[in-house]
């Protein structure tokens, strides 16, 4: 009898999984314009924290959500956010100040989704990681010093105060590796105390209709009083709300959107290795292959048959063209980030802003699933 129930349970899970995967799902083109897009605003209310230039905001809007506004600490990013997204509310201040406000609009206490991308360089695999944990750092003009690895918990404090139906938080893959796993356990504990069931997924943008291999972890939490109809066994001891976030779109290679245009010429210390590096290879690997001293870890030559690698915020590193010794053109970076062609970057570097942002199409795909499987049924 126990064997029967185990098999029956697996059948139900498989049947549910297949049904969700086979549903006709809305697609989002990574080539798009703000001026030509109709945002329906009929899926629910969203507020975004650590909003940068609004990558996730534009994704929610593509999926039909009404994004009420944002909280951001960088005045230059806020200026770009406002001119492109026209928010109803905008709070230019640290989240530590924002979460303690007693004058927040009533609408923020009735959110469908609270969104956030807490700054994550402390956990990045290309940073100092453990050496920077617990330290105050100041990164850009106008920003206050902050301990980056505690900002996620400030964000959860805000969720506890506002009590949105769903919380979605994005972070780097490095949060799941090594000693950083202790932070993941603490994130789960804090969400639990805030009244939420929390789960996380490691997702790759290149499997979601975006021509960039950007891996990011998404923590998605559903308020406990709403979770009853969606609870299933996660393991022998744990229940969790069922949510299918399996994406397996065909990857989009660089050759499919290559503008044929060139960015700035490679700097001399990279240029001298251009011929040595194979398409898709990093300069570091090319030097190792030839038995030379390894350097230039963050530089690589584009493989036209693959999507772009992760677009980073560092304007002086990253991928360069495969055919001539030039960096990528801004048009290719915009497409690789699924940003709209008519986005107004003001005086901000295109690569910096896109490297700091969640690809809009990535957020659109995730939030569409959250709406279809949870919010539309609540």
Description of the molecule:
The chain has 378 residues and is α/β, with parallel strands linked by helices. It folds into 2 domains: 33-249 and 361-377, Vaccinia Virus protein VP39 (Rossmann fold), CATH 3.40.50; 254-355, no CATH class. The protein is built from 11 helices and 17 strands. It has a 7-stranded mixed sheet with strand order 3-2-1-4-7-10-8, sandwiched between helices. Strands 5-6 form a two-stranded antiparallel sheet. Helix 2 packs across helix 11 and helix 5 packs parallel to helix 6. The longest helix has 21 residues, at 2-22.
> Looking at the structure, what is the overall shape?
globular
CATH architecture level-2 label of the largest domain: 3-Layer(aba) Sandwich
Order of helices and strands: HEHEHEHEEEHEHEEEEEEHHEEEEHHH
| N-to-C CA distance | 34 Å
Spans of at least 5 consecutive residues with low confidence? 1-22, 124-137
The CATH topology label of the largest domain is: Rossmann fold
Structural class: alpha/beta
- Range of helix content: 25-40%
CATH homologous superfamily of the largest domain - what is it? Vaccinia Virus protein VP39
- Percent strand equals 15-25%
Number of domains: 2
CATH classification class of the largest domain: Alpha Beta
Separate helix tally: 11
Oligomer class: single chain
Summarize the structure.
The chain is built from eleven helices and 17 strands. The protein is an alpha/beta fold. The strands form six sheets. A seven-stranded mixed β-sheet has the order 3-2-1-4-7-10-8, sandwiched between helices. The chain has a two-stranded antiparallel sheet with strand order 5-6. A two-stranded parallel ribbon has the order 9-15.
